[in-house]
Amino acid sequence: MTTTTRSQGAVRTLRIGILKTDSVRPEFIGLHGDYPDMFRTLLTDAAEIAGMPTPEFETYDVQHGRYPGTPEDCDGYVITGSRDSVYDPHPWIAELGEYVRELHQRQHKLIGICFGHQLVAQALGGETTAADVGWAVGVHGSRLTARPPWLSVDADDFALLSSHKDQVRRLPDDAELLAASDFCPIAAFTVGDHILALQGHPEFVKPYAEDLMRFRETLLGAEVFARGMASLAEPVQRMQVGRWMLDFLNWRAPAATHADDH
């Protein structure tokens, strides 16, 4: 990979706001950290591998009503995963949906992961529901269906760890499908140059995914649990996707040029 993004000018030191929508279970935090820790590790490591400046991070616990003073406090935001569903009647979810619409109206950079992916779709006029196929756990692959200009493409597909029972069923009208699979037809999408949404978890590592599956073994059922555990032998491209996230946050579309009227 090259060490610069496909945006104009030099790669910036990014200030990334993490919109925290849940916490790792207390018995797992000592081993794996909390969700903001996972994103900090992912994006710091991806930046180091790519030769980019180390990002700066700020966490906002939106589950408890804590938001940036203004969207401009950070270059872009990442919405984490959550055990809640985006259609649950919690006031904090409705408030976060309003914030997504505000960021969209300002065309401010936003990345949604899992719950965040589903919430962005729902907030902008799409639809998220419980999936007919049930739980997705372990390693799941997706194929790219589009090539945005910021995407540093090394392959036509990628695999990430997953943990979700809901899926985006319908995209917002102005969204473009970015990745799909037979199990999850809307695995990633974009809206313009300012929103990226991914169903998989690039921030997860396999030991955490294993602990989470073991905790949920009864809930998942024997077949889903066994299939998910077996899938952990397959490779994932979390660093590649972390690089894509950085490229997306750095990307600025070239300014429009106009012919001289004279």
Topology, pairings included?
Blueprint lengths: L14 E5 L6 H7 L2 H16 L5 E5 L15 E4 L11 H16 L2 E5 L1 H9 L3 E4 L5 E9 L12 E8 L1 E5 L4 E6 L7 E4 L3 E4 L7 H10 L1 H4 L1 H10 L6 H13 L12
Parallel strand pairs: 1-2, 1-3, 3-4, 4-11
Antiparallel strand pairs: 5-8, 6-7, 6-9, 9-10, 10-11
Helix pairs in contact: 2-8, 3-4
Describe the structure.
This protein has 262 residues and is of the alpha/beta class. The protein has eight helices and eleven strands. Strands 2-1-3-4-11-10-9-6-7 form a nine-stranded mixed sheet, with helices on both faces. The longest helix is centred in the first third of the chain and has 16 residues, at 35-50. The model is unreliable at 1-9 and 256-262 (pLDDT under 50).
Features:
262 residues; alpha/beta; Rossmann fold; nine-stranded mixed beta sheet; 11 strands; disordered N terminus; disordered C terminus
Query: What is the CATH topology assignment?
Result: Rossmann fold
Q: Beta-strand level of the residues, as a percent range?
A: 15-25%
Structural class: alpha/beta
State the CATH superfamily name: Class I glutamine amidotransferase (GATase) domain
Largest sheet: 9 strands, mixed
Question: Spans with pLDDT under 50 lasting ≥5 residues?
Answer: 1-9, 256-262
Summarize the structure.
With about 260 residues, the chain is α/β, with parallel strands linked by helices.
